[in-house]
Write a structure and sequence with these properties.
Layout (H helix, E strand, L loop, with lengths): L1 E7 L4 H12 L2 H4 L2 E8 L6 H7 L4 E3 L8 H13 L3 E6 L8 H6 L4 E5 L11 H7 L4 E8 L9 E8 L6 H25 L1
Parallel strand pairs: 1-2, 1-4, 2-3, 4-5
Antiparallel strand pairs: 5-6, 6-7
Helix pairs in contact: 1-7, 6-7
This protein binds glycinamide ribonucleotide (GAR).
Length: 192
């Protein structure tokens, strides 16, 4: 079985979209793939309950309990590698990763970012798109490299920026597209 491990920090709606698609499309039968675990660096992440409700085992690895980024990433890799994952999926996992971690998962690590990369890496993407007068915004699924929010693009979705948009209204429009493209990009990688 090709195991997928999903990392979250918050609401986990992208994680849920992937798990629900995997269950609906019977990925275990059709692709020999399953979401083996959801791991959060935040004990309060709402996505943990969502994952449990979907029947996916969860684990919390609180980054505040570690002396530095290297120590946390090493422990995280240990927790992930219990599942010998074919794919490690970052889904709103809001941590900067060490090069050692990224290298360890070379070719197996993907992320979704709420902008049309290479525009607007980093935080506050929606407000920055509005402030920049962008007519279009969107989301990008990409392979993860050591540089934050960079790496080969696997898929993108585009949405209009509408008059009167706030960061919240634009984020909601983009998020709906994230839920569409991320499960499909994961599926494509599993088939490769
Ligand atoms: C999503 O919009 C995702 O693209 C973004 O965080 C949100 C998580 O929502 N990720 C980043 O900003 C990464 N740089 P979710 O927890 O409901 O999936």
């Amino acid at each position: 079985m090709k195991n997928i491990v999903i990392l979250i920090s918050g609401s986990g709606s992208n994680m849920a979209a992937i798990v629900e698609t995997a269950q609906r499309e019977r990925w275990s039968d059709t692709l020999g793939a399953t979401v083996a675990a959801v791991i959060s660096n935040k004990p309060v992440a709402a996505g943990l309950a969502v994952a449990n409700a979907l029947g996916v085992p969860t684990q919390v690895l609180d980054h505040t309990g570690f002396a530095n980024r290297e120590a946390f990433d090493a422990a995280l890799a240990q927790a992930i590698d219990v599942h010998t994952p074919a794919l490690v999926v970052l889904a709103g996992f809001l941590r900067i990763l060490t090069p050692a971690f990224v290298n360890h998962y070379a070719g197996r690590l993907v992320n979704i970012h709420p902008s049309l990369l290479p525009a607007f890496p980093g935080l506050n993407t929606h407000q920055r798109a509005i402030d920049g007068g962008c007519r279009f915004a969107g989301a990008t699924v990409h392979r993860v490299t050591a540089e934050l929010d960079h790496g080969p693009i696997l898929d993108q979705a585009v949405v209009p920026v509408l008059p009167g948009d706030t960061a919240a209204t634009l984020a909601a429009r983009v998020l709906a597209q994230e839920h569409r493209i991320y499960p499909q990009a994961v599926k494509t990688l599993l088939k490769a």
